[in-house]
Write a structure and sequence with these properties.
Length: 192
């Protein structure tokens, strides 16, 4: 079956549909999600998440990693965010100046797409595949995807790493579940 990202703008109409087959599931993976799915949220406090580009450094949340490593014209990184149970969004404004990029391996990545590829996606991927509370839920999604069509959502709109708007981690999760399902199917099906 397939796994999709469900953008915020399509969420209400999708959930209101009454014509969907039983094997089409919409799953909320936001911090407000029911049934334990909130452990897959980028803002969930797992602790001990490795920080990409900073060997030996850990953070409590993926959001904390992303926010901590931002650099602005008048404000550098805020590594205290790595220890924050809930990361505050750091945005460009009159006080901070424009965003300059993200710290990675001691250098500045000023390309948002590259920063997402090197920081956000690896941090989120590690979390869902390794954090003790997240891994069983991730594995459950992979198993569900064998016989169901999944639509994952987190309340954001952007599912493209190339779009400058904030990236939905549900879109990243949908790709990770798809990859894991394909990999497990390949192992389960011997090649002739």
């Amino acid at each position: 079956m397939a796994v999709y990202f469900l953008p915020k703008s399509r969420l209400k109409p999708f959930l209101a549909r009454t014509d969907l087959p039983e094997n089409v599931l919409a799953i909320d993976v936001s911090l407000k999600a029911p049934e334990g799915w909130e452990v897959l949220a980028a803002g969930f406090d797992h602790g001990d998440l490795p920080v990409p580009g900073m060997t030996g450094t850990v953070a409590r949340t993926v959001d904390g990693i992303w926010e901590a490593l931002k650099r602005f014209q008048s404000e550098g990184e805020d590594l205290s965010m790595l220890d924050a149970p809930k990361a505050k969004k750091r945005r460009a404004n009159e006080k901070t100046g424009a965003s300059l990029g993200y710290l990675f391996e001691g250098k500045l990545l000023n390309d948002e797409v590259e920063a997402r590829r090197r920081i956000f996606v690896p941090a989120y991927s590690w979390m869902v595949k390794n954090a003790p509370a997240a891994k069983p839920k991730f594995d459950h999604l992979v198993e569900l995807a064998r016989t169901n069509t999944l639509h994952l959502y987190d309340g954001t709109e952007n599912g493209s790493i190339f779009d400058p708007r904030p990236l939905s981690y549900a879109s990243v999760l949908a790709e990770l579940v798809t990859e894991a399902r394909k990999a497990r199917s390949a192992v389960a099906t011997p090649q002739i």
